[in-house]
Write a structure and sequence with these properties.
Elements lengths: L1 E9 L2 H12 L7 E17 L4 H6 L5 E7 L3 E12 L2 E11 L2 H10 L3 E17 L7 E8 L2 E8 L6 H14 L12 H7 L1
Antiparallel strand pairs: 1-5, 1-8, 2-3, 2-6, 3-4, 4-5, 6-7, 7-8
């Protein structure tokens, strides 16, 4: 099981184009360094025994029961428990590779689970840091999720206290001209059904 501390922030189309252009073209940005660029397409299918978010909470169902397919090739099964505290998203996640996702889809159908939500994400992923923080590297995705431009930044180690992690993530966003105060703590299901 891993813990993630994550912030997601909506971007303007101009911010998305500017930052994604810098990353894709391997350009520099003052005070910001990055490496391991990957272009990733993710297709997520979420499953539940219940039809509403309220029913899931009432029955203490896991917040995320998901099949993720990356770049139309590899598939993973994931369960997550999410918690929000002071605008920081904490995710306890367990994930495993699955050879044939159709077997799991058939299992869900046979046991009464429904696919209640889907999302498609086109992402530019990098590991990044800023010169103002030493020994801190985060994962950054500049992405379009069902067409909406967002930045997602996360830290997956448990070696610094969460408040310090949040401050460091915010510093990285600020360096890129992204205001962390605009962060969106809603789930993707809430975001995408409100658009």
């Amino acid at each position: 099981m891993s813990q993630e501390i994550e912030l997601k922030v909506p971007l303007t189309q101009n911010q998305y184009e500017t930052i994604s252009g810098i990353l894709k073209n391997n350009k520099t940005f003052p005070g910001f360094t990055y490496h391991s660029l990957k272009l990733i397409q993710k297709h997520d299918e979420y499953f539940s025994l219940y039809k509403s978010h309220e029913e899931r909470i009432k029955n203490k169902e896991l917040r995320v029961i998901r099949i993720r397919t990356e770049n139309n090739k590899k598939a993973y099964f994931c369960i997550k428990q999410k918690k929000l505290k002071d605008g920081i998203e904490f995710n306890n996640e367990q994930e495993t590779f699955i050879e044939n996702p159709d077997v799991l889809r058939s299992f869900f159908e046979a046991t009464g689970y429904i696919k209640w939500f889907e999302k498609k994400k086109d992402s530019i992923f990098v590991n990044c840091s800023v010169s103002s923080i030493s020994d801190f590297e985060a994962n950054l995705e500049i992405e379009k999720v069902n067409g909406l431009p967002y930045a997602e930044i996360e830290y997956t180690k448990d070696d610094i206290n969460p408040v310090e992690i949040r401050k460091n993530l915010e510093k990285i966003l600020n360096t890129l001209g992204i205001n962390p105060e605009n962060r969106d703590s809603r789930s993707w299901a809430e975001i995408l059904t409100d658009k």
